[in-house]
Structures are given as structure tokens and as C-alpha cells.
């Protein structure tokens, strides 16, 4: 337990510090812009490039791992969509945002720091692959479903062009692709460049966690959605279980890869869900509330998942 506390205290402590700082200084939301710019365009891309570029190329081509992880994530997405649409009668657009709230974890901001801290460098590659490919797919699915719902008024050509641009030019995708190229071509990086990348990568986790706390402070809880009763357990409990069962069923993955995938799956709802809702004017306040509530509950659930993983209680093979 002491080991788990030592892992979680700096992690959630930085979020709390950001939250308190935002409440104490009462800075406007716009002041967070440059910090987010640094995180998204410099620190996290440097971290992903570092993780991928220094990994043997054969470890980077595990299509079976990526496909299985994404299949588990979207199984949860489809389940939540069906509940919202068929049982609660929500609109197509509302169901889309609700389903993202239950399946789109805060893997970019929270994932690398926690996984590397808890599992070591062995978790680097699966973490980078999950973040890259899941985000890329979310960038495709979200506008496609909102277009199907009628909330996106762009033409088909404009929609496709925007999706391609967002996927191809996103800093996470570009940095990961550059890392792939360096690893595949066995390019020797100059020492000065490596040091620059290392400095930026070291800033990624603390800056992202602090920004997460500030973001939560700037989005007060105004409206608690009724759907929270099943979105919270779906995101924090069902999602990691689905990922674990899927990966162990397929088999042949290193234990740390399974552990890293489960750890990323148990993270709270991504702040991007609010951004998507805001972009289309759908489920905005309730998305903000879901992010806050899942983050608060994740203090307990992530701790429990870490105990299960670090104590060896997570079996690495369910099927003979």
C-alpha cells in the first residue's frame, strides 16, 4: 500500500496543486492556453518521439495488440451508445458524446506519466501505440458520427478533408510517425538533439497533470447527467476489464503490455470529450460534469487497479 501511495501521491498531487492554484489565483481560462500549447505541441510529442524512436522496430509493428485494444474500447462505446439510444431514447448526437465519455480516457495527459511511473520503461511502447492509434481513430469517429447525426453541416468533401488534416497533422501522430521512421532506419540522433528531446519529455507529465487540475477548477459542476450512473462504472471499471479480457484472450503479449493497456483504460474521461461536445453544441455541461466526476472517482479506482496490477493479482492468461 505504501508503494501505491508513493506512486499516486505525485500523480494526483500535481492535479490537486493545479486545481488549488486555479482557485486561489482566479486566473481566466485563457491564461491556460500557452501551457496547453507547450504540452500538446512540444512536451508530449517529444515524449512519444523519445519512446518510439529508441525502441526496436519489431516491437512497434504489433498490429494485433493495437487492433485488440481498439476493439475492446469500441465495444464499450457501442454498448453505451445502445443504452443511450435504445433504453433512454437519447438523440444520436447525445449518444455519441455519452459514448465517448465512457470510452475515451484521458490517455494523452495522464497515461504516460502514470504508466511509466508505475510500470517502468517497459510500458513505453504500448503506451505510445495506444495513445497514437486511439486518438487517431477518435478523430475520425467523432466527426463522422456527428455528421450522421446531422449536427455537422459541412459537405462530405470538407468533412473528409478536415478529418484527414486533423489525423495527419496532429502533433502526437507526427511525433510518433517520426519515431517510427528513426527506429526503422536506425538513424543515430545527435547527442544535443537527444538532450533537447529528453528535457522536453521530462516536462510532459508534470505540466500535463498541473494543467489537468487547472482545467477541472475552471469547469465547475453545474449539471449532473442521469447517465452518469452507468457512464462512470463503464469508464473506470468495465473498460479496463474489457481490455484485459480481450488482450488475454488473444494472448502472446508481454505482461507489461497488458498491464499498461489496462492502466490506460481505467483512466477518467478525456477533456477532449468536452471539446467535442462544445464544438457541436451537444451535451456540453454534462460532459464537463462527467470529466470532473470520473476524475474524482478515479482517485479510488485507479488506486485499486494499481494494487491489482502491482500485487500480481491480475492474471496474465485467462484462456489456456
TrEMBL record:
It is a multi-pass membrane protein. The keyword Transferase does not apply. GO terms for cellular component: plasma membrane. The chain crosses the membrane at residues 32-53, 65-84, 123-146, 167-187, 199-218, 230-250, 256-277, 289-309. Its main location: membrane. Belongs to the auxin efflux carrier (TC 2.A.69) family. This is Uncharacterized protein. It comes from Rhizobium laguerreae.
